């Protein structure tokens, strides 16, 4: 009931793929993440922070927000939520896990991903349509993208500056574990323009920008086809379904 | 922190404090000591108001009762100076206008039927004075307060907007207020997961020392989920849940919101509440789960006047009475006196009425959300609100006298003596042109346009709005800088709502009656511009002291103007807020108070938000139409302000019948796919409208109506169109059939014309060309437009 390796789910139909979305107190984008899973064709399963059970889901999204108000340090309290024990174990066993914004912060606090996020270098909350370069199109969450592709998804945070020691940064780059970089202006001072990273196995991905806000025409960033037509985020969720279906 | 106003009277202090072995000021004690002096004046009550309380009770009030009456009879809570005039909103609302109204004025917020079983509740409210004292917390708790109003109607909050007025950009104190307020609105709203879909940002020295921070929230619910604030059913439990009660905001309602800041008066700084958006987010989800479980009979949020307000309003709205045991209130600060507990404005608290049978389920849900909950009393059949503290009866009142039957004043008002002089100083017409020089040559027009586009009130607001989350919840179909915010309500059908707010204080200063109507007309037009049918109105009336006949006259005229215009446009006021005592000047002078600022919000409905019309054009080769007639109306304009630092004359005329027709055309044209873009023309006139429509997507335009550019100014009902050429005839037919003036004034154009050159002489990108007069590259325009606020505040 924990990790479901890709090969184990070969026969799963698209809707049979169950993607858990964790709600912590103060989580904001859980309904958005669930919608993104549905739009990609999967089944979203709500998971509750206090319930130490992943309910046999095939993948997990930790959505954005201000869990516990970010009052201590972003993600620092959520990392101790009952649901996290099984999640960490499952992630180490290969369960696809995506942390978005606050979810990324929780994953670094839980040591599933290296580094940490500090306050933006300009010290204000910033919401913008952000261009990213896909640097690794082989993770469980990015295989429907092309290496080097430019995508636009919303960015919105106060504590989005990714930091890690030089050794870790070198290692991330050396092992191809930088999944996304900011294109053009670096919106928060992140080291080496890093917007998202993965673990060595490629099943755990964390990023600051919000793919779940660019999944539906009419409600995302501006796109080629006109205002708010951008759906570049949808392929995160189709990627994981592809991964699960083998 | 200590936060009580200076109630230095030994009697009051001792009387409210039962924890130090002193006898509390009980009802019996009050009856036995009729001559004891109470500090009513320090609590903001006038001598005759105090006498009235004594008459109502048949004895002197206890200290706790005095605390309750003082906050509930404050201007902020009782509307005592505006009530007699606000009645017009109800009186002038016809049955026809009411047909979409599920809940009208008087509840926490109005509720409007938008079809398919969906309803929307919305309201705008002020938090002006606290935001000057402590900008971050003032603004944050302003957002928190209006959001709780929306939750208490049974709705899920789905968006916020903020209407901000600050002092002059070059005043040394302005940056402090701007930074605090913007961070506060963002910090709170972002943490709640509510998209901010628009608002207003105005700088004017009239707001120096008295900024305006208004916040609007809109919520969505099913018809059957409507909840009201009343306590009924004898034996039902009164439950207080959310944050603990602390010492913050005590007396805020009575003092902070009702008096001006004067030198020599003790600092009221601690009276500002402190917000915890995390708690509020949890409270939202917790309340929605309580509603879904059908375990709430009545509910009221705690805002101004805290427990005093919630208990007296719930009891007053219900059929019976209520009894409360105050020691059951969970405290953050155990040293609070009974009076302080009653007055505390600690944030993120709600009070619910729950049947005994459902109490267990209620408590299980609040426990699941880790929300602290206390049963503090129950509904009784006595018709009285009684409150005990550790067994001592400290309050025994008729709740209606506290909540709804407070003093009502018909304050004297008169047209200010300075109005004639103000209105005579016109910039319009030959007379104005002689005194206030106008740009004549193409080059001068070009420079004027650039200067206006870069002026703080017309410059891009993105430095502010980029600090707000507009994507969260995934239903934002449109947000600033488009004309209205648009939110999807039904994911299946695309049914949704558009919201726009407006107020032009300069117009309202020149004529408050017309100013209020112009605010409504523009918000109404903005909603129609995106393609939504206007349905209902909320308002926040920000004015000076009601005790100053000049300000009172402005308030009365604005209410009359707004009520008349609502009737003519057929949109009812569903609720709102009045903020008085906004001013720091000498009464009787022209600068005694802020510009009268009637913020008007209009809600419209769209059958499918996907069809909402954007404010900018993207496709070259489309025809641009100007709808409506342009008059030489320059009084109160941005041009007069920016170029001549002048305010005088008469505001633009209002033609509401024409507004109604124009709105019908805009809505139909959007529905039938006749327009690709539409943008309302208001501040800055046609020039600003063209610039914004060009910059939205970086597509230029060629415009050839030089006589319109020469008159370049505001008309009250002009809107700007980009029409696909193939649809031109149909579109023109529709305007002709409805008798709306329309004129083709240009074409959208993104060609890089070799005739256009940037500063270095290289061929420039797309441009706005006003033929025979000037050409401005979009790059240059964009820089002028976008750099101003970052340069001033970043």
From TrEMBL, chain A:
SMART domains according to UniProt: GATase_5
Reactions listed under catalytic activity: L-glutamine + H2O = L-glutamate + NH4(+); N(2)-formyl-N(1)-(5-phospho-beta-D-ribosyl)glycinamide + L-glutamine + ATP + H2O = 2-formamido-N(1)-(5-O-phospho-beta-D-ribosyl)acetamidine + L-glutamate + ADP + phosphate + H(+)
Assigned EC number: 6.3.5.3, 3.5.1.2
Known partners and oligomeric status: Part of the FGAM synthase complex composed of 1 PurL, 1 PurQ and 2 PurS subunits.
A Pfam family hit: GATase_5
Pathway annotation from the record: Purine metabolism; IMP biosynthesis via de novo pathway; 5-amino-1-(5-phospho-D-ribosyl)imidazole from N(2)-formyl-N(1)-(5-phospho-D-ribosyl)glycinamide: step 1/2
Gene Ontology MF: a single term: glutaminase activity
Organism: Actinotalea soli
Family annotation (InterPro entries): Class_I_gatase-like, PRibForGlyAmidine_synth_PurQ
Cross-referenced HAMAP family: PurQ
Cellular localization per UniProt: Cytoplasm
Domain of life: Bacteria
Function: Part of the phosphoribosylformylglycinamidine synthase complex involved in the purines biosynthetic pathway. Catalyzes the ATP-dependent conversion of formylglycinamide ribonucleotide (FGAR) and glutamine to yield formylglycinamidine ribonucleotide (FGAM) and glutamate. The FGAM synthase complex is composed of three subunits. PurQ produces an ammonia molecule by converting glutamine to glutamate. PurL transfers the ammonia molecule to FGAR to form FGAM in an ATP-dependent manner.
Stored PANTHER family: PHOSPHORIBOSYLFORMYLGLYCINAMIDINE SYNTHASE SUBUNIT PURQ
The protein's name: Phosphoribosylformylglycinamidine synthase subunit PurQ
GO cellular component term of the entry, any: cytoplasm
Lineage, uppermost ranks: Bacteria, Bacillati, Actinomycetota, Actinomycetes, Micrococcales
Keyword Cytoplasm set for record: yes
Residues forming the catalytic site: 101 (nucleophile), 210, 212
Keywords: ATP-binding, Cytoplasm, Glutamine amidotransferase, Hydrolase, Ligase, Nucleotide-binding, Purine biosynthesis
UniProtKB/TrEMBL annotation, chain B:
Keyword hit for Cytoplasm: yes
Transmembrane segment boundaries: none
GO molecular function annotations of the record: ATP binding; magnesium ion binding; phosphoribosylformylglycinamidine synthase activity
Binding site for Mg(2+) 2: 149, 301
Residues bound to ATP: 79, 123, 539, 576
UniProt: substrate binding residues: 126-129, 148, 273, 345-347, 579
GO cellular component, one term: cytoplasm
Swiss-Prot/TrEMBL keywords: ATP-binding, Cytoplasm, Ligase, Magnesium, Metal-binding, Nucleotide-binding, Purine biosynthesis
Domain called PurM-like N-terminal: residue spans: 106-220, 482-605
Domain named Phosphoribosylformylglycinamidine synthase linker: residues: 42-80
Record-stated family: Belongs to the FGAMS family.
Official protein name in the record: Phosphoribosylformylglycinamidine synthase subunit PurL
Organism this protein belongs to: Actinotalea soli
């Amino acid at each position: 009931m924990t990790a479901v390796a890709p090969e184990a789910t070969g026969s799963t139909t698209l809707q049979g793929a169950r993607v858990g979305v964790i709600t912590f107190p103060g989580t904001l984008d859980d309904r958005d993440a669930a919608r993104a899973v549905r739009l990609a064709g999967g089944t979203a399963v709500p998971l509750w922070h206090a319930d130490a059970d992943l309910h046999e889901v095939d993948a997990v999204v930790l959505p954005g927000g201000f869990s516990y108000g970010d009052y201590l340090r972003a993600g620092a309290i959520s990392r101790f939520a009952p649901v996290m024990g099984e999640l960490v174990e499952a992630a180490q066993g290969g369960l696809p896990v995506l942390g978005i914004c606050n979810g990324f912060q929780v994953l670094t606090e839980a040591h599933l991903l290296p580094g940490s996020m500090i306050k933006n270098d300009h010290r204000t909350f910033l919401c913008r349509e952000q261009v990213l370069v896909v640097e690794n199109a082989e993770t469980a969450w990015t295989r429907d993208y092309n290496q080097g592709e430019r995508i636009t998804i919303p960015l919105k945070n106060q504590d989005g500056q990714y930091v890690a020691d030089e050794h870790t940064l070198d290692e991330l780059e050396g092992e191809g574990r930088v999944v996304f970089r900011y294109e053009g202006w670096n919106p928060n001072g992140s080291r080496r323009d890093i917007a998202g990273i993965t673990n060595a196995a490629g099943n755990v991905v964390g990023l600051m920008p919000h793919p779940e806000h660019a999944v539906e025409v009419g409600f995302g960033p501006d796109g080629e086809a006109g205002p708010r037509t951008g759906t570049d985020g949808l392929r995160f969720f189709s990627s994981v379904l592809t991964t699960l279906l083998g | 922190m200590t936060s009580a106003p200076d109630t230095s009277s030994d009697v009051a202090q001792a009387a409210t404090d039962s924890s130090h072995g002193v006898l509390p000021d009980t009802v019996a004690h009050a009856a036995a000591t009729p001559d004891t002096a109470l500090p009513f004046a320090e609590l903001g009550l006038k001598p005759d108001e105090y006498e009235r309380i004594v008459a109502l009770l048949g004895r002197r009030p206890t200290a706790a009762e005095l605390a309750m009456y003082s906050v509930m009879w404050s201007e902020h809570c009782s509307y005592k100076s505006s009530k007699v005039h606000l009645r017009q909103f109800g009186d002038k609302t016809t049955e026809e206008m009411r047909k979409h109204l599920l809940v009208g004025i008087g509840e926490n917020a109005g509720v409007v039927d938008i079809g398919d079983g969906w309803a929307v509740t919305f309201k705008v409210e002020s938090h002006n004075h606290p935001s000057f004292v402590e900008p971050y917390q003032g603004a944050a708790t302003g957002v928190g307060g209006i959001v709780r109003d929306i939750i208490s109607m049974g709705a899920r909050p789905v968006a916020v907007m903020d209407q901000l007025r600050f002092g002059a950009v070059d005043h040394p104190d302005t940056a402090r207020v701007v930074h605090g307020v913007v961070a506060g609105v963002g910090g709170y709203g972002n943490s709640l997961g509510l998209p901010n879909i628009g608002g207003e940002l105005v700088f004017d020295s009239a707001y120096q020392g008295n900024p305006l921070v208004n916040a609007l929230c809109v919520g969505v619910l099913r018809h059957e989920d409507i909840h009201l604030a009343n306590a009924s059913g004898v034996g039902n439990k009164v439950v207080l849940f959310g944050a603990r009660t602390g010492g913050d905001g005590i007396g805020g309602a009575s003092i902070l919101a009702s008096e001006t800041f004067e030198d020599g008066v003790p600092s009221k700084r601690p009276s500002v509440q402190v917000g915890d958006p995390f708690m509020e987010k949890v409270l939202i989800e917790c309340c929605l789960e309580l509603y879904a479980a059908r375990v709430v009979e009545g509910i009221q949020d705690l805002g101004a006047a805290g427990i005093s307000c919630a208990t007296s309003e719930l009891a007053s709205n219900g059929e019976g009475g209520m009894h409360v045991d105050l020691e059951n209130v969970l405290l953050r600060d155990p040293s609070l006196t009974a009076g302080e507990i009653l007055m505390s404005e600690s944030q993120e608290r709600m009070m619910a009425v729950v049947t005994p049978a459902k109490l267990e389920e209620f408590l299980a849900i609040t426990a699941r959300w880790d929300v602290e909950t206390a049963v503090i009393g129950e509904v009784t059949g006595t018709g009285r609100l009684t409150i005990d503290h550790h067994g001592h009866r400290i309050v025994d009142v008729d709740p209606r006298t506290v909540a709804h039957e407070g003093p009502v004043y018909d304050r004297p008002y008169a047209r200010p003596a300075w109005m004639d002089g103000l209105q005579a100083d016109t910039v319009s017409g030959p007379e104005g042109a002689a005194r206030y020089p106008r740009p004549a040559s193409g080059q001068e027009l070009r420079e004027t346009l650039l200067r206006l586009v870069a002026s703080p009130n017309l410059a891009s607001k993105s430095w502010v709005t980029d600090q707000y989350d507009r994507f969260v919840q995934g239903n934002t179909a449109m947000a600033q800088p488009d004309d209205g915010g648009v939110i999807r309500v039904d994911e299946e059908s695309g049914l949704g709502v558009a919201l726009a707010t407006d107020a032009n204080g300069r117009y309202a200063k020149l004529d408050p009656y017309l100013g209020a109507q112009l605010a409504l007309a523009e918000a109404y037009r903005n909603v129609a511009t995106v393609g939504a049918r206007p349905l209902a109105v909320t308002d926040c009336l920000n004015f000076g002291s009601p005790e100053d006949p000049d300000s009172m006259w402005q308030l009365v005229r604005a209410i009359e103007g707004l009520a008349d215009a609502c009737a003519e446009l057929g949109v009812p006021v569903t609720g709102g807020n009045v903020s008085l005592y906004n001013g720091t000047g000498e009464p009787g002078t022209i600068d005694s108070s802020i510009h009268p600022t009637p913020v008007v919000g209009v809600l419209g409905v769209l059958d499918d938000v996907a069809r909402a019309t954007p404010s900018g054009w993207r496709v070259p080769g489309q025809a641009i139409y100007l709808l409506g007639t342009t008059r030489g109306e320059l009084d109160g304009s941005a041009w007069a302000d920016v170029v001549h630092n002048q305010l005088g004359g008469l505001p633009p005329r209002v033609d509401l019948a024409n507004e109604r027709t124009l709105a019908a055309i805009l809505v139909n044209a959007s529905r039938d796919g006749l327009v690709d873009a539409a943008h309302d023309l208001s501040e800055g006139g046609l020039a600003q409208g063209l610039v914004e429509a060009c910059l939205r997507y970086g597509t230029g335009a060629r415009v050839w109506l030089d006589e319109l550019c020469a008159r370049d100014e505001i008309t009250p009902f002009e809107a700007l169109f980009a029409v696909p050429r193939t649809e031109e005839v149909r579109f023109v037919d529709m305007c002709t059939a409805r008798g709306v003036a329309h004129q083709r004034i240009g074409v959208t154009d993104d060609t890089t014309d070799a005739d256009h050159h940037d500063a270095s002489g290289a061929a420039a990108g797309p441009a706005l060309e006003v033929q025979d007069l000037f050409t401005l590259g979009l790059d240059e325009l964009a820089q002028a437009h976008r750099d101003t606020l970052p340069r001033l505040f970043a």
